[in-house]
C-alpha cells in the first residue's frame, strides 16, 4: 500500500470535522487559514463562526467598515492581518468579480496571501496539487523524508515540496493536504506518537530513529526584555484610551497611553515621555502595580502608573467604559489590566 493510501485511510476514519473541512468555498478556506496561522483551534472556531455570521460572503466582507471588523477580530491579535483581509476582500471583489483566482501567482499577489495560504486554497478549493507547507506539515515532511535542513531554509522548502508532490501523486489534492495537516495535529506531534502512526512503515525518520530530532529549527532567540509603562486615567466609570497608530507592537489597538522601552525609566522620565508622546501633562505620577507578560520572544514588565493631577489633549484619545472598549479593537493585556483596575483589588498601593 502506498503512503497516500495509508494516510487517506487513516484520515477518513480519524478526521475531525471542523467547519472548514466541510466546505471548499475559497472565502471560508481563506478565512480559516488566516485564523489558523494566528491562534489555536478552539479560538479559531469561535472567531470563524462569529466572522461568518456577520460577514457571510466575501462581498459583504469587502463592504465592511474597518473599525467594525477590527473589533470583531479583537483578541486574535496582529491587526495588520485583519486589515490585509479587508484589502484582500475588496481586491477580489473589484478585480475578480468576488471569486478568488486559482492561479498561484495571482493568489500570491493578493494582500496577506503568501505561498502557504495560496497552496492551501489551490489544494482545497480548486483540486490543484500544490505543496503547502506550514510549521505543522513541515514537521511531518521533515520526518517522512528524514530531511535535516533548517525548516525555513529555501533548500528545505524545495526538498519538502518535491517530497510532497511525489507522495500526493494519484491522491485528491484537497484530501491529501488535509490528511497531512490532521496527521501533524493528532499523531506526528512535536513529540511524535510513532507507535500509533499508520504511515510509520513509510517514514524514514522512524526507520533511522531521528524523529525526535526533526525538524531542524533555527537556534532560539534569547528573550528580549522590555518595560511597558501604562497610564491609567479614570473619570468615573471611564478610562482614557489612545489608539496606537504606527508602532508594530499592538498596532491599531486601543490601549492605555503607553511607553515601550528597553530601559528602566525614572518617574520623572516617565512623566516627560508621556508629555512628548501622548500630550499628557502629569503631576505626581506613581507606579501602582507591576505585572509580567510574555509575548513570543519578548519578556515584558508591565508597569501601571496613575496620577493625581493631569492635563490631556483629549483629541488624541477617548474615554471609554469596559462595555465601550469591547466595541473597539484592543489587546488581551489591556483587557487584563482593565479588569485588574476595575476589580475589587484596586490599584491602591504604590509599588515604589
Ligand atoms: Fe511522524 Fe512517527 Fe509517523 Fe514518522 S512514524 S510520520 S515520525 S508519527
How would you explain this protein's 3D organization?
This protein is α+β, with helices and mostly antiparallel strands and 352 residues long. It is 44% helix and 15% strand. It is built from 15 helices and 10 strands. The chain has helices at residues 3-14, 26-36, 41-54, 58-62, 66-73, 79-96, 104-108, 115-126, 135-144, 154-168, 173-186, 204-208, 267-278, 322-325, 332-342; strands at residues 224-231, 234-235, 238-243, 254-255, 258-261, 280-283, 286-295, 298-306, 309-312, 317-320. It has a 4-stranded mixed sheet with strand order 5-1-8-7, covered by helices on one side. Strands 2, 3, 4 and 10 form a 4-stranded antiparallel sheet that branches. Strand 7 (286-295) and strand 8 form a beta hairpin. Helix 5 (66-73) crosses helix 6 (79-96) and helix 8 crosses helix 11. The longest helix is centred in the N-terminal third of the chain and has 18 residues, at 79-96. Mean pLDDT is 90; it is low at 348-352. Iron/sulfur cluster binds next to helix 9 and helix 12. Iron/sulfur cluster is lined by residues 140, 143-144, 187-188, 192-194, 197, 199-200, 203, 205-206, 211.
Name a few traits of the molecule.
four-stranded antiparallel β-sheet; binds iron/sulfur cluster; 44% helix; alpha+beta; 15 helices
Q: How many E-type strands?
A: 10
Distance between the termini: 69 Å
| Estimated helix fraction | 40-55%
Radius of gyration: 24 Å
- Can you list the strand order of the major beta sheet? 5-1-8-7
Amino acid at each position: 500500500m502506498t503512503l497516500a493510501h495509508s494516510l487517506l485511510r487513516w484520515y477518513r476514519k480519524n478526521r475531525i470535522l471542523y467547519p472548514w473541512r466541510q466546505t471548499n468555498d475559497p472565502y471560508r478556506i481563506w478565512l480559516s487559514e488566516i485564523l489558523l496561522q494566528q491562534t489555536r483551534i478552539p479560538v479559531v472556531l469561535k472567531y470563524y463562526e462569529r466572522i461568518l455570521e456577520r460577514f457571510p460572503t466575501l462581498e459583504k466582507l469587502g463592504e465592511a467598515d474597518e473599525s467594525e471588523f477590527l473589533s470583531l477580530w479583537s483578541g486574535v491579535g496582529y491587526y495588520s492581518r485583519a486589515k490585509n483581509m479587508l484589502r484582500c476582500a475588496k481586491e477580489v471583489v473589484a478585480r475578480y468579480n468576488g471569486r478568488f483566482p486559482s492561479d498561484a501567482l495571482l493568489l500570491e499577489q493578493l494582500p496577506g496571501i503568501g505561498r502557504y495560504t495560496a497552496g492551501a486554497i489551490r489544494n482545497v478549493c480548486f483540486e490543484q496539487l500544490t505543496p503547502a507547507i506550514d510549521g505543522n506539515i513541515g514537521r511531518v515532511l521533515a520526518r517522512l523524508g528524514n530531511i535535516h535542513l533548517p525548516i525555513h531554509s529555501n533548500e528545505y522548502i524545495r526538498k519538502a515540496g518535491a517530497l510532497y508532490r511525489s507522495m500526493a501523486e494519484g491522491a485528491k489534492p484537497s484530501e491529501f493536504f488535509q490528511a497531512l495537516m490532521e496527521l501533524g495535529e493528532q499523531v506526528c506531534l512535536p513529540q511524535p506518537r510513532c507507535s500509533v502512526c499508520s504511515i510509520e512503515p513509510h517514514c524514514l525518520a522512524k526507520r533511522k530513529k531521528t524523529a525526535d530530532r526533526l525538524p531542524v529549527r533555527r537556534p532560539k532567540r534569547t528573550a528580549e526584555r522590555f518595560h511597558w509603562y501604562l497610564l491609567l486615567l479614570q473619570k468615573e466609570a471611564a478610562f482614557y484610551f489612545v489608539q496606537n497608530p504606527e508602532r508594530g507592537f499592538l498596532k491599531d489597538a486601543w490601549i492605555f497611553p503607553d511607553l515601550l522601552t528597553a530601559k528602566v525609566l525614572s518617574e520623572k522620565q516617565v512623566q516627560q515621555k508621556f508629555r512628548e508622546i501622548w500630550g499628557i501633562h502629569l503631576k505626581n505620577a506613581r507606579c501602582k502595580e507591576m505585572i509580567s507578560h510574555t509575548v513570543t520572544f519578548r519578556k515584558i514588565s508591565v508597569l501601571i502608573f496613575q496620577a493625581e493631577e493631569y492635563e490631556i489633549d483629549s483629541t488624541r484619545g477617548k474615554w471609554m467604559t469596559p462595555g465601550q472598549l469591547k466595541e473597539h479593537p484592543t489587546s488581551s493585556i489591556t483587557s487584563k489590566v482593565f479588569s485588574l483596575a476595575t476589580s475589587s483589588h484596586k490599584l491602591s498601593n504604590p509599588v515604589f
